[in-house]
Task: inverse folding
């Protein structure tokens, strides 16, 4: 089980707060999974999604701001939704999640 409160940092502030090297390495590592303009918090959500898909975790509870619903962040949520559909967790999709 993964439970956490990942740090929020908007994509516009990532370079100034974390440095070019860190941001470049993070974006390289998540190429094709997290879009370049996504906020820092989405990398934690994607990592948790990938762990569920790989069978390394069964449940996840991560906090996020409402900003995760829009822009480049939205693509990460769509990946999570697709993973849930493929795993066919009973009752989850029937609740409108």
Result:
């Amino acid at each position: 089980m993964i439970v956490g409160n990942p740090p929020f940092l908007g994509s516009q502030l990532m370079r100034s707060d974390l440095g070019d090297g860190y941001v470049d390495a993070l974006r390289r590592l998540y190429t094709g999974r997290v879009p370049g303009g996504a906020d820092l918090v989405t990398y934690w959500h994607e990592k948790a999604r990938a762990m569920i898909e790989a069978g390394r975790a069964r449940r996840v509870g991560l906090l996020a701001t409402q900003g995760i619903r829009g822009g480049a962040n939205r693509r990460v949520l769509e990946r999570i939704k697709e993973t849930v559909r493929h795993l066919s967790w009973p009752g989850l999709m029937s609740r409108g999640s």
Notes: The radius of gyration is 14 Å. The chain has a mean pLDDT of 86.
